[in-house]
């Protein structure tokens, strides 16, 4: 009874879902006309990915998608967030559409609808066609235009069956890990490039939003980013200012232009305070570059229909005096002792999700917020009888869903929650060493086995329907 009363806080049309992305699960990397992506190239760099793993086969979802939809039916979700692979539809990033690639997604969407599962489609989840990277990638302004063309083509063909569209997944990660720290594809380390990439990603969202709406009046168009609650490690003035600026940089750089027509002020101010750390002298005048970006952002005001929130952990930072220049070397990311952590080393802090949601409500007054990713990796292993008990993941899941409930009761317009992920998969630079799934995947046989958390989430979803 107590759980049923708690679940009553969720709207009746709430989206209960799971999430995946194309490169992490599909495999079939060279089948049916798919072209190479930046990740197909990156995984072949020595040392780039743990164990030398690749996404060539991944979870073989391209061939096993019907089985995976059946698992969703058993789970009881009413929504599924997945991404369309740009290089599967446009092997060169542009040109004629690959009909064989499109047919795969059309079949998947048709089957989802038959099962009563709402498709939520992400257009870009990091798998940029390699041909576009060779022409400059996201640092090339033309890539934003090509993305808008791609978005229009996909919506033109699939838009009658899909209402929920996400343009970009985690542009923060694309910018920082792909172009500043080099941990993700395309593996670059250039602060000037990173700021240009961030600006072009915003341009890509704006142009794709327009392109989608030109194709259909039925679309809800959103943008998903990795968001966090940032706290200073101590109360020193610079630490406090840095924490505020970093939070606004991560959470606001890819939203403020569409709500206010400008980039957030705090990180821009920080640039002027720490130019040597963020912008090496040989990179030119940072103020001039920022002023040019600000001027263009004034034309981008169009709030998304929903804000997608990917939340995993909070961030605790301190200023590193005398640290080396460049990248994020002026920051210390502090890990407090004695806190619960996942196998990724990430702090478990559902209160951080509540803080993020409340901040979004107060700053942007959005019509809808959707938790597009939230989940945890643990060192799952089958027991001798084949069962996979994962009590830590169950605690994580229940605590974060309860955080969403508390946010809704506080007036935050949350419309959905998507657990990451439906099944264990290729976890980027970690390869297959980290398991986030509700379904355990034996990568040798591709057999799927539900973990205890699968059934816990099933019961949680069922409880929201009441007696």
UniProtKB/TrEMBL annotation:
A UniProt-annotated Pfam family: Glyco_hydro_1
Sites where the protein binds substrate: 24, 125, 169, 312, 420, 427-428
Gene Ontology biological process terms, A to Z: cellulose catabolic process
The keyword Hydrolase is annotated on this UniProt entry: yes
UniProt KW keywords: Carbohydrate metabolism, Cellulose degradation, Glycosidase, Hydrolase, Polysaccharide degradation
Catalytic activity, EC: 3.2.1.21
InterPro entries: GH, GH_1_N_CS, Glyco_hydro_1, Glyco_hydro_1_AS, Glyco_hydro_1_beta-glucosidase
GO molecular function, one term: beta-glucosidase activity
Family membership: Belongs to the glycosyl hydrolase 1 family.
PANTHER family for the chain: GLYCOSYL HYDROLASE, LP05116P
NCBIfam families linked to this entry: BGL
Stated name of the protein: Beta-glucosidase
Native source organism of the sequence: Hydrogenibacillus schlegelii
Lineage: Bacteria, Bacillati, Bacillota, Bacilli, Bacillales
């Amino acid at each position: 009874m107590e759980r049923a009363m708690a679940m009553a806080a969720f709207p009746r049309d709430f989206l209960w879902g799971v999430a995946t992305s194309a490169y992490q699960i599909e495999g079939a990397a060279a089948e049916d006309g798919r072209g190479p992506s930046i990740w197909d190239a990156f995984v072949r760099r020595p040392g780039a990915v743990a164990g030398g793993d690749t996404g060539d086969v991944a979870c073989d979802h391209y061939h096993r998608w019907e089985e995976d939809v059946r698992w969703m039916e058993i789970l009881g979700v009413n929504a599924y967030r997945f991404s369309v692979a740009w290089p599967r539809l446009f092997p060169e990033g542009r040109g004629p559409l690959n009909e064989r690639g499109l047919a795969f997604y059309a079949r998947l969407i048709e089957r989802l609808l038959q099962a009563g599962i709402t498709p939520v489609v992400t257009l870009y989840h990091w798998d940029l066609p390699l041909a576009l990277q060779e022409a400059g990638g996201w640092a090339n302004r033309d890539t934003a235009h090509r993305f808008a063309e791609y978005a229009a083509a996909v919506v033109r063909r699939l838009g009658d069956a899909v209402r929920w569209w996400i343009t970009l997944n985690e542009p923060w990660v694309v910018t920082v890990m792909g172009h500043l720290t080099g941990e993700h594809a395309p593996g670059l380390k250039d602060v000037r490039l990173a700021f240009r990439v961030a600006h072009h990603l915003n341009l890509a969202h704006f142009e794709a939003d327009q392109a989608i709406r030109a194709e259909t009046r039925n679309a809800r168009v959103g943008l998903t980013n990795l968001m966090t609650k940032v706290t200073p490690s101590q109360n020193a003035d610079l630490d406090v200012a840095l924490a505020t600026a970093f939070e606004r940089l991560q959470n606001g750089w890819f939203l403020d232009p569409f709500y206010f027509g400008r980039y957030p002020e705090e990180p821009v101010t920080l640039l002027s305070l720490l130019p040597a750390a963020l912008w090496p002298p040989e990179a030119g005048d940072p103020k001039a570059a920022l002023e040019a970006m600000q001027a263009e952002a004034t034309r981008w005001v169009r709030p998304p229909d929903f804000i997608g929130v990917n939340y995993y952990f909070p961030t605790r930072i301190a200023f590193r005096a005398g640290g080396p220049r460049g990248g994020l070397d002026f920051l210390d990311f502090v890990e407090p002792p004695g806190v619960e952590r996942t196998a990724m080393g990430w702090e478990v802090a559902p209160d951080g999700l509540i803080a993020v949601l409340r901040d979004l409500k107060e700053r942007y007054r959005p019509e809808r917020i959707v938790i597009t990713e939230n989940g945890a990796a643990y060192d799952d292993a089958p027991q001798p009888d084949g069962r996979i008990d994962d009590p830590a993941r169950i605690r994580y899941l229940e605590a974060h869903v309860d955080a969403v409930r508390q946010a809704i009761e506080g007036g935050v317009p949350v419309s959905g929650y998507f657990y990451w992920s439906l099944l264990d998969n290729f976890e980027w630079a970690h390869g297959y060493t980290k398991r986030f799934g509700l379904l355990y995947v034996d990568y040798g046989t591709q057999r799927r086995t539900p973990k205890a958390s699968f059934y816990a989430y099933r019961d949680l979803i069922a409880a929201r329907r009441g007696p």
